[in-house]
Amino acid sequence: MNPYLKTILRDLGLFLHVPGIMALVSLLVCVAWGEYFAIRSFLVTAIATLALGQLFYRTCSPGASASRIRYAMLTVALAWAILPLFGAIPFILIAQKLTISGETSATIIYFQNSLNAIFEAFSGFTSAGLTMALNPSRLPHSLQWWRSLMQWVGGVGVIVLVVSLLDPSTNPFQLYSAEGRSKRIGLTVQSTVRRIWWIYILYTLASIIWFRVVGMPWWEAVNHAMAAISTGGFSVKDESIGAYNRVIQMAVVPIMILGAISFPVHYKFLRNFQISALWKDSQHKALWILLPLGTFLLLFLNYSFNWSFVWEETVFQWVSSLSTCGFGTVDLKTWSSGGKLLLSIAMVIGGTAGSTVGGIKLSRAVVLFKAIFWRFQRLHLKPHQIMGYKLDEKVVTETEAIRRVEAAAVLTILWVGLLLIGVFVLLEVVASPYTLADVIFESASALGSAGLSTGITAPDLDPMGKIILIIFMWMGRLEIIPVVLLFSVPFTALSKLSLSSRKR
Length: 504
Prior knowledge:
The protein is mainly alpha-helical. The protein has helices at residues 3-15, 17-32, 39-60, 69-87, 89-101, 106-109, 114-125, 141-156, 158-165, 172-178, 189-213, 218-229, 246-259, 263-272, 282-306, 311-322, 337-349, 362-379, 398-429, 436-447, 463-477, 481-503, and strands at 389-391, 394-396. Helix 7 packs parallel to helix 21 (463-477), helix 11 (189-213) runs antiparallel to helix 12 (218-229) and helix 15 packs antiparallel against helix 17 (337-349). It is globular and about 80 Å long. The chain starts with a helix and ends with a helix.
């Protein structure tokens, strides 16, 4: 076997331990709520993933070579594609069990369809939040927990969990960066991810207590805290956060914002109490500017559409979109096309790099904005003047500035191209009364791992529509390039084979 293939399979084996451990932990919930019918489903999930993970790891470790960034990206792309397939098992088996017993609802029955279950698992692990559950409140507690747990783990990153606990022999920085991360808050990648987990757990516990204080029942507080800090958006209520009063709705807003702030900034704030760290760099300044600016613009669009100020809903939905959290308080299908498009832009941009959000990230948006500024600035330079480049309060070389602009531009072009493909596909499979604005909104929500919906995402959606949204959630969570690299492997292999045959 090719040494690099062994490396990929070895590390994939490590990642397969994650859903296995998650399933074992979920057994406690089954026992606590007396849902003994769900125990078999989680045991099957645990045994399948742990057995396959051990098989890959033990058989492929001998002879595995040192990894390179290309193979780390392939490993990450494969891991995020395969893990949700195992995450779908509890949905399918529990749905089958409850349907046979006759004690179920339409919400459960739909999960007998494997594609619906896979969709839900992909949405969970990618912390997207689009759902096939018509009435989440009708789900068993074990499945409510499973949805929240997938988002909680997926929000901080499966690779971050593996690196922090299992310490794979592959260069951990390559796996860490392959998942779309770069900055460290420790001397090593292992110390960095462990600090990320401590911050994540601390904020999760604080969010649970915060939600309980404002009046949310314990079970709902636990699930919503996990979904909020991971900017996931799954809810145990049919109306999402709209099921609660205004006090609770507004209490969710700061938790969504916390999820949109990068972990390095959280670390500086918690360790040194540097409040200034929250707005010191360019992307966090942009976050604090966009939060009120977008709110006022959305408020104006809503007022122009229905001649009333719905400021609580406007604030909530704008924060939910920009943080790519996906909680909802209103039926967005009734909003104006302008309002939907503005929210779509927010979901495409997302929050800060190094946080739990999806989207292009504000760091890249800031670089592109500065590139436009630099372009016009060059036009006013005199022949003897030299152009200066500054990013995050630091002077950088022209080469570094061009590299950063190029990287941001390439990813943005890929984003826009994929978004257009998704719009064209969904327009073919989605019937009226959904408009072009609705289709753009749904595509942006899936690709941005946001989870807000105008109603297009539903169990009766055409299978092709479900598949394109699944692919979008997968690609969006990994910032596209690792998945594109994975898709290119067969073509690369064919070209090498063709070249080899010509030489003969």
